[in-house]
Every structure is written in C-alpha cells, then in structure tokens.
Write a structure and sequence with these properties.
- The protein has helices at about 5-15, 20-25, 30-45, 60-85, 100, 105-115, 130-140, 205-215, 230-240, 250-255, 285-295; strands spanning about 50, 55, 95-100, 125-130, 145-150, 160-175, 190-200, 220-230, 245, 260, 270-280.
- It is α/β, with parallel strands linked by helices.
- It has three domains: about 5-75, Winged helix-like DNA-binding domain superfamily/Winged helix DNA-binding domain (Arc Repressor Mutant, subunit A), CATH 1.10.10.10; about 80-170 and about 275-295, Periplasmic binding protein-like II (D-Maltodextrin-Binding Protein, domain 2), CATH 3.40.190.10; about 170-270, 3-Layer(aba) Sandwich (D-Maltodextrin-Binding Protein, domain 2), CATH 3.40.190.
- The strands form three sheets. Strands 3, 4, 5, 6, 9, 10 and 11 form a seven-stranded mixed β-sheet that branches. The protein has a two-stranded antiparallel ribbon with strand order 1-2.
- β7 (about 190-200), α8 and β8 form a beta-alpha-beta unit.
- α1 crosses α4.
Length: about 300
C-alpha cells in the first residue's frame, strides 16, 4: 500500500468527483482512478459505489475515510512532534482562528494565557474562514482551531476525531444603522424584504445565520446586497447599506452609543459558543502544554 493512496481517497471523498480529485492531487484522471482501484484491492473491499452517476462511498468507504483522515493527521502530528524533540523545529503551536475572533477575542485571550505562565508562548496564528480552517485541521496542518459554534450549524470538527473546550459565549444580534431623524432601524426585520449584508458560503458565521433564518417563521425575504466577513460587514452596516447579524462583543459599544440600533428584538438573537478544537490524539509536548493552560 502506498501512502499517497490515502490522500487520493480523502480528496475523492471531499470533492465527490474523480476529475476534480485528480486535479487536486496533480495527477491525470486515469492514473488517479488506478490508484483508487489499487487501494480497494489492497483492502479487499469496494470503497466507491460506481453504479450511480454521482460518486458515493460504500459503507466501508465511509468508515475508511474516517480511518484514513486520522492516519494522515496522526502522521503529520508525529512528524511535528519528533522534529520538536530532535530540536529541528521550534516549539511553535499552530492555531487557526476565524476572522471574527482574530481581531476581537484572540489577542486578549492569548495575553491572559501568557500572564499565567513564565514560559514564552510561541504561537503561529492563521486567520481564515471556517471551511479552510476545517480542512487544515483535518489534514493535520494545525493543532488548534478557535471558532464560533451553534448546534444547528455543525462543523466537520464535531466528528469523533476531535474534541473541544468551550471558552465562552457570545450572541449574534441583528443590527442596522438608524434613521437620521429617529433612533429606529433603517433596515428593520419586518414582514416583507430586507437588505441583508451576508457572510460568505465558506464562513462559519454564514452557516450559523443561514441555519437560523431558514428556521424563522417570519415571512421575510432577504436580499443579499453585499457579502464579506465580519469587520467589513460592520462597516457597511454603519454606512446604511443593510442589516447584518454581528457579534455583540464587536458591536456592543456602537449599540450603546446609538451608532447602530437593533434591527429586530431579542428573539432574533443567535447564541453562539466560542470553541477551541483539537485532535483527540496526543500532540506535541508544546501543543499539550498549551491545551492544559487553555482549559485550566
């Protein structure tokens, strides 16, 4: 069995198409198909159901996808650990942070952790969207992921290969710029249509808001007039372009000062959890020390 076959199979499960998966692995489709066949022959089971037009995994394929991801992740973490032990790489902890938390929560949280230890925390922080962060965690390219979570918008990290610690909570509140002459919402949530400033499809916040608005009994049509990430949406709300669901931790001060107003009552608020995800498998000594400090 060749190690590369595991990566091939994971690419196929994620992309659901032989052509796209082959392109992502930089091989031709015939060569890619032969490698998947070779993996099936080595396992003596069929992983892919080829009887339908759309590629689906067999029950064995679905289970092996979980195993293959764990193997690849453990090997990557093992490589990092032995490099750290041998002194060939610094004891740097790699953390993925979604955009909304990178500038608001993360700096103060990291400072509070550093204040509790005499050892310097060597951190490599990468800010990205939730889709990209999930993929990097699944591939073992980072040790931790800090993000928002809501039970109606489950993450790929909610699987058996990961665990999490809750670091706090927040609320996504519907906000709008006020009318110039009165403190009412310029873009209220009311029956009819409303201009929505939306998160992108790769955003974890976008998943959460979409899940909650889909469940709403109110007869409201959302016109997506602009799409971006949290800090840009906050600026566009202030300019009166539309309304958006934004973290109270970010817009609370503007609400108190009247720069922004609520676009709807508290029944429209979306409670969210702040989670720090990590693989269940043991990580490098530096990562394990950081986890202990973070959850203590």
């Amino acid at each position: 069995m060749e190690f590369a076959w595991l990566g091939d199979f994971i690419a196929l499960t994620r992309l659901g198409n032989f052509s796209r998966a082959a392109a992502s692995r930089n091989v031709t489709q015939p060569a890619f198909s032969r490698r998947i066949r070779a993996l099936e022959e080595w396992l003596s089971v069929e992983l892919v159901d080829r009887r339908t037009h759309q590629i689906t995994m067999t029950p064995a394929g679905k289970r092996f996808a979980v195993i293959a991801e764990a193997v690849l992740r453990d090997i990557e973490h093992g490589r990092q650990e032995v490099q750290e032990i041998a002194g060939t790489s610094a004891s740097t902890v790699k953390i993925l942070v979604t955009h909304a938390l990178a500038l608001s929560f993360f700096p103060q949280w990291l400072a509070s952790l550093q204040a509790r230890t005499d050892a310097p925390l060597l951190i490599q922080m990468t800010a990205d969207n939730m889709d990209a962060s999930e993929k990097m965690m699944l591939d073992g390219k980072a040790q931790f992921c800090l993000c928002h979570h809501h039970p109606d918008a489950r993450s790929a990290l909610d699987g058996t290969g990961f665990q999490f610690a809750s670091l706090g909570n927040d609320r996504l509140v519907p906000v709008s710029a006020p009318h110039k002459t009165e403190m009412t919402a310029l873009h209220p949530l009311a029956d009819g249509a409303v201009n929505l400033l939306a998160y992108g499809p790769t955003s974890g916040m976008g998943r959460i808001v979409s899940a909650m608005t889909a469940k709403s009994p109110e007869a409201i049509t959302y016109n997506n007039v602009f799409t971006s990430h949290t800090l840009v949406l906050a600026r566009m709300v202030k300019e009166g372009t539309g309304m958006a669901w934004l973290p109270l931790s970010i817009v609370g001060d503007e609400l108190e000062r009247g720069i922004l107003v609520r676009a709807g009552g508290e029944q429209w608020d979306i409670p969210v959890d702040l989670r720090l995800y990590r693989p269940r498998a043991r990580q490098s000594p530096a990562a394990e020390s950081f986890w202990t400090l973070a959850v203590d």
